[in-house]
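Lecture notes, unit on protein representations.

Consider one protein chain, 911 amino acids long.
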Amino acid sequence: MARTPGTDSKSPQALLHVLCSKITGLKDDALSPYFKLALTTLGSTITSPVESTEFEVAEKIKKKLVALKREKDAAKFAELHRKLQAQDLVKNRWSLLYLLHKLGDDRGARGKHGGSRYGYSSHFMPALATHGATSTPAGNQQHTAITTPMYGSTLGSSGMTSGISSIGTGHSSDPSIPHASLPPGALTTPFHSELWTRRTPASKLLKTVERSNRTGYFSKSSNNTTVATAVSRSKTWTDSGEEVSELVLLREIVYVFQGIQGKYLLYDAAHNTYKVDPKAKISKSVRRILAKLMECGWLYTKVRKYADSRSTDRAFGLVGQSFCSALHLELTEYYRLIAVLDAQLQQEEDAGMVDASSSLTLRRLAVWSSDPLVRLKTLAALVDVCQGKKGGSLASVIHSYTQHGDPTIQALVRHTLMLVSQPIFSTILRWIYDGELEDTYHEFFVASDPTVKDERLWHEKYSLRKSMIPSFLQPEMARKILLTGKSINFLRQVCQDRATMRNREVVKKSQTTQVESIFSSSLDGVFSAMIDTVYRETSTHLLDILQNKYKFMEHLTAMRRYLLLGQGDFIRHLMDLLEEDLAKPAGTLFLHNLTGILETAIRATNAQYDDQDILKRLDVRLLEVSPGDTGWDVFSLHYHVDGPIRTVFSPEAMISYLRVFNFLWRAKRMEYILSSIWKDQMQDSRLVLVIRELHSPLHVCHAISGEMVHFVQQVQYYVNYEVLESSWTDFLKIIGEAEDLDVIIAAHDDFLERVTVRSLLDPLSTNILRQLRTIYDLIVKFQSIQSAFYLAANDEVDARARYKKDISERQKQGEWGLTDNDEQAEEARRSHFCSTYIPKINSQLRLLHESYLSQVCQFLLMLTSHNDVSLRFLSFRLDFNEHYRKKNPDVLSPATWSKAKRRTQPLAVAT
């Protein structure tokens, strides 16, 4: 009679005894053979192929029932299996199905040999339909043949030993029954999935690892009881072809775990893998277990080689070294596993007794190494994707693995990322609080160029390395970090401001030392709040310094008033003073004379009330002289900038101001010329009305000047209101809401860009600007023609007045007023004037008018095809009464507009 399981009803033996009783329906002595067979099966080393999944075992059972002509039982089994899967309290369904499957095989073997070798008949399969759905109170966790905890559970030695001893040697002679090989020894500490994270003293760990490296496969002493026990339970493979001992394979697996090949587990350098010696006599199922176990060694070798090789590479940077340190830290936990395994093997080799229920086996080792295997796979994956990466780019790659569904892997990657992010976090803190940047190996996302001078510090010295921005930092946050440190250096080096930053207590209060806050979503608000606070206070302090100490707004207003002709009385008076000098050839001008005229204009207008520092910066500049240029073509005003404000008013920006000034100055000159033309017409028209022949050219002059005045006034209105005033208003609004200096610089550049484009100074408007200057040249030419005409007309009026005066004086003296010769000479002169000069001036005015109309129509056609809506609307205003359209039907016609629309659509898409 078999020994009754222990009094503990929860022990594995008691549960197995209850299961056998329910399946067979037998009691006491009749149940003993079945209970012994179940114990033997559960503790055996399976040498036949093992179905690795629950599905495979279930399918094999159904096929076996179908082969036995039991289709109804197969259908019934499928239904019971479906119900079993629906139960959430059933644990290890694979083990249960596999047990039933093997018991069914035993029954088939007994039928083949004519009866049971053990003297009992099987009741497992007939009772399957009744008791197959029996459940046990356990968790709903599935395991494969290698990872099932059933092989790692501690069974009572008394029940197991009695069961094995009662079977005898007959079991091993039956080829249909799995061979039972129960390893000796007992585990002092059960292994579980958290073994890797268990902590042991470092000194004990090193001693254990050294002892495992010194220990051989097993002791060769013939008197050693451990060797005798090992040989009795598992024979060593010899020349006679016997199977390799499991203890030997366990020892070699421990070596492979450390990246060292053994006698039977070899390293194939050609294929970079570990393999089992094909000549060794090892069963197929054991080879499968060994293949899975050797993967740990291969992964360990891969991770260790990467960490060792990169640890000595200084160019890898601080982030890379932190990654290597994280790898070494994880490998240290892996070494603890190896140390405990080696201690367990050494204990079993030194023990003189065999405890099959708790000894170390390949299956148990496969279960215990499953968690380290997953961790090593994760580390190896990180090593693969981090090849060639460093700095923020390396942190980005690691961060991408935190989005993993497995909490264990996610925790491992997050811990690694926390160590890797430590140098980045420390560099960010030094940068945003002190403006210090130590980036020897160019791994931080803020780059510095030490060759840049202080005057270009803001624009060129510091920049973002986009490839090094970690993926857990948003681009806007990276920009704020860059601006914060850059503002601190700008204040110190350019503004020479060493004062304590405003609201320093608020800034310090926002500081955090939690490294994980830089990438953790749960702590996202902490890091963002710190960056926002420091950025806001630093930028506000910088803007206050520029506004109050360096008078940024005063300088900006001076640019608008003088370089953009916003101070009307000053510009008008300056033109009056410069008219005579600028009419001369450009080569005859002297800079000191023009500077004196500028100072006179300042003292005579409201400009004299401006700040003296601003007036000192205003100066005259002469452009490069070309052949035929007059003073109007080369004269320009200039505003000197230096210090911190030069960051906003950069040399490029001052060039844009110069170009806009020349455009506005030329348009202002046209207005000035037309004003002079109108004044001449008002003064001289009364004088020439006495000559009837002058009425026609006078009318033409008035008509031409009226068209020119309308054109110039519309252009001036467009430039002053739609270009300058609207852009200036938007610019001031942005400055009032600006949070940092970069916003002001960008708004200033955008302001100049809008003014430049709408003033036809961009490359796309070169032809239109050339056409406008041609029209301006015609206005200047018209002034010269009209001036010559009025000069000749006044000479004719004066001649006729002298002729009448001579007649009057002669009559007063009692003489004849006219002689025949005088009358003939006067008629000849008048006839020559009317027949020669009047047609000539009429011809000049007609040609000028026709040319002017042609150029204006061409200008309007060009405007209709421009991308800017305001310029297209300018063409509509210039021909509001369709005067030019009557002269040229193509101007503003629907066909022209549609053509312009087709021409602008591709540009709009490209933009």
